[in-house]
Amino acid sequence: MDKKTTKSTPTAPEEITIQGQRYPVIITMGAFLEYHRITGREATDITSDNLSDTLVLLHAILKSGQRRGGYTYPYETVDDLACDLTPDEMATIHLA
Length: 96
What we know:
- By secondary structure, this protein is mostly helical.
- The chain is built from four helices and two strands.
- It has one domain (14-91).
- It has helices at residues 29-39, 51-69, 78-84, 87-91, and strands spanning 14-18, 21-25.
């Protein structure tokens, strides 16, 4: 009996555009570690109505994704990111 193999089609990562620059939204384990380093808490404790924690998580995700792709990340702090991020840009992504 022959084994069937499953083909998976890779999907492009979600992206967010900030100040005309596109960033992939790739959730990595490094993002969770970065979130913990910044807040001292686990990312699993974030509630959907906590905008500050969501911004910290987004910063960690973007920073980790850029590192994974071999790119530099221009935002040193969460505040730096937040100053360039509009509510409309934030609304385009979904962190599940």
